[in-house]
Each structure stands twice: as structure tokens, then as C-alpha cells.
Model the fold of this input.
Amino acid sequence: MKRIFLIALVSYYLVCPMSSLASEQWSAQQANNWYQKQGWLVGSNYNPASAINQLEMWQAETFDAPEIEKELGWAEAIGMNTMRVFLHDLLWKQDAEGCKKRINEFLSIAARHKIHPLFVLFDSCWDPHPQLGPQHPPVPGVHNSGWVQSPGAQALHNPNEYPRLKEYVTGVVGTFAKDDRILGWDVWNEPNNRNDSSYGKLEPENKEKLVATLLPQVFAWARSANPTQPLTSGVWDGEWSSPEKLTAIQRVQLEDSDIISFHNYGWPEDFEQRVTWLERYKRPIICTEYMARGVGSTFDTVLPIGKQRNVGMFNWGFVVGKTQTNLPWDSWQRPYVLQAPPVWFHEVFYADGKPYRQREVQLIRQLTNK
Done:
């Protein structure tokens, strides 16, 4: 009888698809227990100054370990303990083994500086037509002129590409599923963003429908790798005050995430209102994007609220460089080529390590007890 049971059990594991064996969403208690062990999370959305986008950051020819080492040293010095870092599906398609090697090297650098990154798997923002190889130079005076989506529009629109996307997700998460150097996995950044002020005319007309179908699968693919780190995807637009006001994509983001994340570039009172809305999920809350000085979201006004409400905080941008995100969003309509904007939009440091504003760095150190 025991032999029959063992044979049946082995057969089940051989033929059963991985997704059916996947771990389940963390319970709220499990998520909160994990969060209590992390300490207050403070960091930036990180791309080295030498890279215009995710592809230039990670491709073998342009992976800049010395620059990363230097910049993460600055982060450690002001009390940051995490960074949100974007990956890309084409990197895995191009060279999966090399991709794993460079991620591991990045993690070793980050660990030396006591930084645990939150990796982003997919991203719906900016150029919907990514290309491997050398990336074009920055467009003068334009914010984030070279950032690319993952998956690109062609892959998103073609279900025949989905097995490749699944292989990327399960491959990268599976490789590092038990790696305690990693904070977590942000499965899709702003999944329903249509980029109306930049690349809107190049987007698939049914992008939101395509994403709504694919996003739950991406959560399932990542979860099938049984990671010891939490999964999330941050809500960023609309109103989240009640379940009835959520879109289909927002419901997936909030109901499938182990920890709740969101973006907010508004005034401090708007930030605090959104935290209150999200507290009903009884899970840890992390703001994975904030800080746009020109529209009212600043370190001075928002970061102390995050500390008070125990919300993890990732500002956008760390060192000014090829992404040019110190320039405002409206640079897509009127590039800042003749004069600089009156105030930097994002970023913390100049390329030489000098703080853009010393008071901000002092505040980060003060709130992180550095």
C-alpha cells in the first residue's frame, strides 16, 4: 500500500504543472511578521548615472560595476537600506546565464553596502519598442528619453511570446528565490500606464485588456518559483477608497500582492489619504515611487509621514545621469535645452556625489538614525 502511494505521489509531481504546486499568497500575518524584521525601508528607484535605461544598465558591454559600487556607497552613507531596480525580459532572452551572473554581482555589491534591492520584473512605462544592443544617447533636455517597456508592445500583443515571458519570470525568480540579499519582487510597474504624454500613439489600443489578462499569470509564474521574498505590484492612479472603485487591474494588484505598494507624487495630504485607504488590507505598505519636487512631493513633507505611518519609502531617482529625470515630465512638450528648470524634479545627488540639497540628505540621515 505504501509503495502504491509513493508511486502515485511521484507521478503527481512529474505530470502536475508547476503552477498547481506553487506557494499561495502570504497571509497578512506572515507579511506583517516579515515586515517587522526589515526595519524601516528607505531607498530610491535606482539606475546608475552611466545607463539610460534597464538594458544599458544590465547588458554585458555596459554593466558598470565600479559606478554601482560608488553610488551604492553614497546610499549607505545617508542611511538608505534598499533600492528598487528594474530588470528586463529581453536580457534573459539575450543571455540568461550572463543575466544571472550580473544580477548576482549587483547583489554582492549591494550587500557590501547593506542594501537589499526590490527587483521589478515588468514595466509598462515609456518606449513600447525596446531593442537590445547599444542604446541611443539621451535626447537633450528631455526626462527619461530612453527608458523602455518590458514586455514591449510586440510581445505583449502576441500570446506566442508568453511562454518566453514565463520562462524569464520563473527563471530569474527561481534562481534567486531563496536569496536573502533580495528584499522582494515587484512583478509589474504601472501595468496600465498608456504613456499618453510621450509614446501614447505607439501603444496597443487594447493594452489595458492585454495587461489585465497577463498580470494574474505573472503573479502565478513568480509564485510558482516559491520565493521566500514577497511579491507586489503598486497601484498608482485613480481612487482606491473602496473595492467598488477599483479597476480590474487594480484589484489584481491589491488582492494578489503579499505586501501592498503604491505610487504617489502628490501633496503630503494626498499621500496620507492614500495610505489610509490602503490600511484596510492589514498588510505592510510600501510607497515604491514618490518625490517630484516641482509638483509638491518632497523629502521634507512626505518622508516624515512615511516614517510616522511605518510606510517603506522609495523616491524616484538617485544620481543625475543619462536618464535626465532631474528634468520635469513636461520636458516632453518643451525640452529644457536653453535653460535648466528652476528646481530638480527627481534625483538626490550630482554625478560627483555632491547632494543636490544638503538639507534633504540630512533629513534622510536623521530619519534613518544614520
Remarks:
- The first helix runs from residue 2 to 15.
- The chain has twelve helices and eight strands.
